[in-house]
Each structure stands twice: as structure tokens, then as C-alpha cells.
Amino acid sequence: MAEEHKQIDALTGTATTGHEWDGLRELNTPLPRWWLWTFYLTIIWSIGYWVVYPAWPLVTNATQGLFGYHSRAAVVEDINALHAMRGPMMQQLATASTAEIAASPQLIDFARAQGRVAFADNCAPCHGAGGGGAKGYPNLNDDDWLWGGKLADIEQTIRYGVRSGNDKGHQGNMPPFKDVLKPAEMSSVADYVRSLSGLSTEAGVDLKAGQKVFADNCAVCHGDAGKGNREVGAPNLTDKIWLYGSDKATIVQGLQQGRGGVMPVWEGRLSEPAIKALAVYVYGFGGGEK
Amino acid sequence: MTQLEELVRQSEVKAAPPPAPPGGDDIDEIPLYAARRKIYPQSVQGTFRRIKWIVLLVTLGIYYILPFVRWDRGPNAPSQAVLIDFPNRRFYFFFIELWPQEVYYLTGLLILAAIGLFLMNALAGRVWCGYLCPQTVWTDLYMAIERFTEGDRREHMKRESQPWTVETYARKGAKHFLWLMVAWWTGGAWVLYFADAPTLVKDLATGNAPFVAYAWIGILTVTTYTLAGHMREQVCLYMCPWPRIQAALTDEYALNVTYRYDRGEPRMSAKKAEQLKAQGERVGDCVDCLQCVHVCPTGIDIRQGSQLGCIQCGLCIDACNTIMAKLGRPRNLIAYDTDLNIKERLEGRPSTYKPIRWRTALYAAIIAVAGGIMIYTLATRGSEGISVIHDRNPMFVRLSDGSLRNGYTIRIVNKQLKSRDFVIAVDGLPSTLIDFVGLPPRADGRQLVAVGPDQTKEVRILVTDYSNTPPAASTSVLFSLIDVNSGEVAQVRDHFFGPEGK
């Protein structure tokens, strides 16, 4: 038994625990008693907690506590307080036009703050957290707009969507040319389209042939000069911005299968102030047109 | 073994007389928790006691009075010399006004405090603990109150060992009342640093102060009363990390409160010492009167050598010197000295104190450099500031004509008490154009940013590079904020990003 080896350490006068390792003995130094009392105090404190706050789970419910505290109620209270605080500004957002909002120094700051949150919640999955877009999803920071970049245009797009099935939404498809054009025609028109925006073309390609294919098939939407048409959302093919990519394979793929990205309708899903706030916020990315 | 070595060995063993184990002789009945050994520090007079009184008066005086010191900063600015203004996010310290952007001065202050503590330690051990630490200062004050109400050591112990009378309760009641008053006023002074002091005093008195003020007074009252009144030396022994750090930082050249066992040992009564001396035997100067133990606020025996519990306040030196004077023996049997010196003297060499060493020189140099940088930057900082955050998503945007654009969020700081107009310039790109989002140009065509008095303003700007040569993946650009009236300039560097390798 270790008990038998307990002794007083000569140097310090402290008793040992009886444990010994290679001649090293462990001193038995008791913890200070205030430490114990601190521990008891925390227990007493916890009992107070049980009494005043909801604590003990019962079969179908839990003890409610004397304070009547309820985390759900606290959240609802906070939300109501927030709504009450924002109410007047929200009311103004709902009734003012986006142009009026943009002209008002107070409203525009509020709208941007609201829009930032709404964008992160609803738009960022496709357009990116900063509106940078992705392949097939327009970059909202640049100055190229398929359906118009004025405040009212942006609001319209958000409200009714693109190819969304809504009557007021933007319509217009790039049809597939797989069964219309021969592979050689598609190749030559792809090279021609690349040349429109100053991109390199394959050596020995007959751009004249491509131009003819373009005039016959594409110019009806993209315009004779390839400048695009916002009525049908046809992109400007002469600028440096490519929604799906500018390499030849991507262009040929677009010709074969057609293009037609969809943006959903947000009216009804987002509140009136949120839609306007979003329009103002997106406009502020830097691509908005005057 | 030489005679001196034998003496050292003897003194070392004697320096640690084995006390009785806790729980009596039966070592199987050692309690799981040790009760605190109550300490009744005796009053003492002398040099170090006087220094402690002066430090106590000065530090507590500063703490209690400073919030009421006024400092005129002109209209629309607080006139309190030291004010931590949380609602407006300003810190005022006499002529210095700090903004949240300049919180790095706090880092500098912490460096100075830490190295200052190291330097103090390298020169004279734990003088911080003994004289300046708030725990020491308030505990000292509380002990003075205790001696005033309950009597000095002997009287206090005697009264507690006898059955308690009405007088005992009255004295204890008075003590706790005075303790609580000090604690309450300590908490009261604390909150005054966070609002205009005279106004807050009035509000506190009339019950109009914010709840948080009362809460903090309550918290500080409880902690002061508990820590200075009840925890006392236990804070130093169990809670404070500094004794542990200090033990690792100290060296043999640092001064410590030291019992000079080379002179004190062997201990014996004055009478016996006379007899042995007459017989030509060696005697020590320590008469084992325990005065050094009785006056110690942490209850240690300094004759056991330097130890964690010693805060080096020097009260044992005063106590011992009083006894030595009575006995007609030389002073400073306990003194600020080093163990090294004792060994030197034992071996017949003179004792020395080297305050200038590599260690202290290095500490002093760090303090000088850090302090110098702080003073320089404080003296030369402008009344305007600019900080720039580059848009991260997307990093850059290609416009339809192929030029590149980067977005930045710029925060402009105007520390002056009047509204100012600024222009922003960007240098480092071949050809640039700056757009202010949502900020139309003025009638004269200039794009100015107006920032209100003592305010900041955030603007988002778009910088477009129109050069035909696309910039590299990253180009360093310089943002300049220029006050159009005074011409004052603040600058900051950031980057302009483009597609990599194209």
C-alpha cells in the first residue's frame, strides 16, 4: 500500500503522497479552500439559472423559468423592433421610383444597404458575391448590358426575369443552328464573329464566306454590323465581353445548340422595397448606364 | 570544505526550517483543501514604507482626480483631459486625440508597458509588484483601514482569539463599511473616464445616469472589495501570471529583496551572541525576532530566499532596520541586493551592482525606439486620412472596349472640426479615369468629396486603365487624398489588378 510510504519531506516539511518515481517523491499540497468555495458558488449560481430561465426538459415541454424568457420570443421581439425602426424608410422605398431613390441622398444609402443583403441572399449564387458573374451569367460590373443598363431597365429585368415565362419578362432565344448550317459554315461564321471584336482568326479562313453566313442567318438579331439588339437580348459581338467565352469551340457550340439563359421572376418572391433596392444596388456596381 | 562553504550550506538548510505539515502530525489526515492562513500584517515605519505611502497617494490621487481635469479643445469637442468616448469612438488624452483607425498606438503602449516591466525587473526585481501594481496599492490602502478600525497585528489577533463583543462587531462593521466606500468610489471614478465627469456625477446622484454606469460601478465595487479586502496576497500567489514570468526573466544581477545570510547566520538571541562572541565564536546578526515575517503583506519569510510570494515591497527591510538600530548593529541585514553579491562577499570580493548590462541596454533601446516612433508619428500625423480596400469579387472588370477597371472602397477621415473638400488622385497607371459611384460632379466639373467636421466618409471609386497595353497581373498604384483648400495630402498605396499573363 502506498499509504505506508507516506512521509514528511525533510526540505519543505510538506507531506508526500506516497508516490515515488525513480527516487522523486510527489508533495501533497492541498488546493486552497477558496477554490472549493468558488466551485460551490458556481453550483449555487446554476441553481439560480434553473429557476429563472427555462432549463429542464420535460416530456412535452420544458420548465419555463420565472423570467418568462423565451429565445423565440426574444428573436421575434428583435425582428419587430427592427421592422419598426426601418418601417418609415421601407415605406418610402416601396412608394418611390428607382429614379427618385437614386436622387435622394438618404434613400440611396438605405437602398444600397438593403440591396447588398438582398443581393447576397438571392443573386450571388449565379452572379457572384460582387456581381462578377460567371460563364453564362452576366458580369454586372461591366458596361455591357443585354437588356439595358439604366435603372428602370435593371428594375424591369429583376422584376420579371429573362425567358422566365412571365409575359412581361424579356423574351428572345438564340436558336440552335445544328440542322440549319453545315459544319464548314459554322466554322467560317465563328471565325468571322471573332474577327468582329478583333480576335485572331485561323490562317487561310475565308472571312467573306463567314460574313455571308452571318448576313443570312445572324444579322436579323445581332444586326448587320453585329452590334446586337437589346429588344431580343442579342449580344453585341463587336465588343470584348463574351458571356459564354470567346474561343472558337465555345462559339461553335453556341451555334450548334443555341443559347438562352434564364433569370427567374422576382416579383412576388421579393418585397417591393427589396426589388427597388436591388436595382439601385446593382446599378451602383459600376456598369449602370446614365 | 572551507569554513565559508560550510556556512553557506548551513544557512541554506537553516533558511528553510520545516514547518509543521498541514493537518497536524498525522500525515494521513491531510485535508483535500487547504484553508487560507490568515495574515495580520504589522504596521512598520521606514524608508520603503514612506515610498509606498507616496506612491499610493500619487497613483490613487491621479486615478480619482484625473477625470475632473479639464482641457479646452474648442467648441463641439469634449473638454475633459482624459476621456474614452465610446459612442463617438474617440479617445482623448490631453492634447492627443485618437481615432479607432489609430488603435495601433495601443499596441505601441502595450509594447512600452511590457518592456518597461522587463527593464524594471532587470534593474530592481519586482518593484512593480511592490509599489505600483493596483492590487498592491489597493490592498495596502485596505490594510491601513483594517489597522485603523481593528488595531495593529497584536490587538487584532488578540481580539479575534477572544469571544467577540459588541465592540468587535462594531469595529468589523466599520472596517467593511470603509472598505465598501473605497470600493464604491473606485468604481465611481472608473465610469467617469467614459463620459463627461461633472455631468455624470450629477446624473449618477439624481438617478439619471445610464444603467451601464451603475452596473460598472457595481462590478468594480465588488471586485475591489473582494480582491483588495479578501483575496489580497492570494491574487499574487494564485491568480497573477507575473511572478511566473518574472522568475523566468530575472538573472543574478537583478536586485531583489534579499536576506544577507552571510551576515545573519547563525541566528541567536542578542544575549547568547554576546557570550559566544566573547568566546571568539562566529555569530550572526539575525536575532530571529520574526519582525520581517510579521510585517510582510504576503506572509512569507524572506530568510528562505527569493520566492514566488515575495512582492519585494521592502517592508521587511524597514522592519529589520528598526531592530538593527535598537540592537546597535549595522543596518540592511535585509536589503535590495543579489544572491550573486552574497557569494562574492563570502569569497572575499566586493559586491557590485551593474545597472548597465546587455539586457538592460537592449530593453532601454527597445523602449527608446518604440517610444520614438510613437512620438514621431503622433507629432507628424495629419488631420486627414485615407484608407483603401480593393474590391475582391471581382478583382477586375473588362469593359466592352477592352480596358480594365478595378473598384475600391475608400474611407476618408477628416479630423478637423470643419467640413472639408477633397480630391482623390491615382498615380501609377499609364492612363486612368476615376469614377465616383453615386457622386455626380459639381457644377464646375470637379469631382470633390465633401467630408463633414470630425467625420469619416466612405466612397466607392472605379479606376479604369485606358492604356492599350494591359497592365500586369498586379500594378502598384498610389492614392492621394488632397484637401483642395489647404493642399494637405494623405497617401496610401494599393494595387491595380489585371488578368494574369495577358
TrEMBL record, chain A:
Record-level GO BP terms: oxidative phosphorylation; proton transmembrane transport
Binding site residues for heme c 2: 174, 218, 221-222
GO cellular component: plasma membrane
Cofactor names: heme c
Cellular localization per UniProt: Cell inner membrane
Residues the entry annotates as binding heme c 1: 123, 126-127, 263
Single Gene Ontology MF annotation: heme binding
Role summary: C-type cytochrome. Part of the cbb3-type cytochrome c oxidase complex. FixP subunit is required for transferring electrons from donor cytochrome c via its heme groups to FixO subunit. From there, electrons are shuttled to the catalytic binuclear center of FixN subunit where oxygen reduction takes place. The complex also functions as a proton pump.
Name by which UniProt lists this protein: Cbb3-type cytochrome c oxidase subunit
TrEMBL record, chain B:
GO molecular function, one term: metal ion binding
A Pfam family of this chain: Fer4_18
Signal peptide: none
Entries under InterPro entries matching the protein: 4Fe4S_Fe-S-bd (IPR017896), 4Fe4S_Fe_S_CS (IPR017900), Cyt_c_oxidase_cbb3_FixG (IPR014116), Electron_Trans/Redox (IPR051684), FixG_C (IPR032879), Helical_ferredxn (IPR009051), Ig-like_fold (IPR013783)
Record-annotated membrane-spanning stretches: 51-69, 103-124, 177-195, 207-228, 361-379
Keyword Iron-sulfur: yes
Domain 4Fe-4S ferredoxin-type, residue spans: 276-305
Entry's Gene Ontology cellular component terms: plasma membrane
Keywords in alphabetical order: 4Fe-4S, Electron transport, Iron, Iron-sulfur, Membrane, Metal-binding, Transmembrane, Transmembrane helix, Transport
NCBIfam families tied to this protein: ccoG_rdxA_fixG (TIGR02745)
Protein name as annotated: Cytochrome c oxidase accessory protein CcoG
Taxonomic classification: Bacteria, Pseudomonadati, Pseudomonadota, Alphaproteobacteria, Hyphomicrobiales
